[in-house]
Amino acid sequence: MRHDRFHGRVQAEGRLCHAPGCGEPGEFRAPGVRPPGADGPGDYRWFCLDHVRQFNAGYDFFAGMTADEIMAAQSPMAGWASQTRAFRPDANIDQAPRWADFADPLDAIAQRARMRREDAIHRQEAARRGIGPEERAAYDLLGLGFEADRKALRSRYSELVRRYHPDRNGGDRSHEGRLQGVVEAYNLLKASAAFS
Ligand SMILES: [Zn+2]
Predict the structure, then answer these.
(1) Which residues surround ligand 1, an ion (CB under 5 A)?
(2) DSSP string over 119-176
(3) If you measure from the C-alpha of residue 24 to the centroid of ligand 1, how many angstroms do you get, rounded to a whole number?
């Protein structure tokens, strides 16, 4: 790495600024998705000068963007599909056990238990509305009732994308599996008869 005379600036060598839609060279380093720790030396994300200042100030890069715009700007699924582990910037031995960081979070397990309890009633109601098992699971994952309309679907999707996106969580990827499920469930329902 070559540093020039500006403090903290590192030759971009093709890197682009991490901020959505910014085409400037990424010359300033900020904490990345994977922190230094037990898993290795860690990595970084790179910003232009304006955006590293905003990053350091806790600026919300996604303010005013729709969920679809956030996803398009970051294309998180492309890079995440190859990752089987989620990494926490604060990962530490006195925190949650490492297995809790895997793509199947505890709340998904709790949700399955809840679904089993309510399954009989739930199935009957779904059948009455012509909703199949895959779509039913998608409603559950998004926490939506079968009466939800298009507006409710989009609103919940936006809320969950924002909640689970690593760039809204200081690069914390522990919600990676959750976000992936949200995106898949949304795409399934969006195309389904109930929302057409
Ligand atoms: Zn930038």
Answers:
(1) 17, 19, 22, 24, 48, 51
(2) HHHHHHHHHHTT--HHHHHHHHHHT--TT--HHHHHHHHHHHHHHH-GGGTTT--TTH
(3) 5
pLDDT greater at residue 122 or residue 195: 195
Number of residues assigned to the chain: 196
Burial (CB count within 10 angstroms: exposed 0-12, middle 13-18, buried 19+), residue 35: buried
Per-residue pLDDT of 145-159, as tens digits, reads 899 999 999 988 988
Q: Which residues contact 73 (CB under 8 A, 6 or more apart)?
A: 20, 21, 65
Measured in angstroms, how far is the CA atom of residue 46 from the centroid of ligand 1? 9
Q: What is the Cα–Cα distance from 42 to 34, expressed in whole angstroms?
A: 5
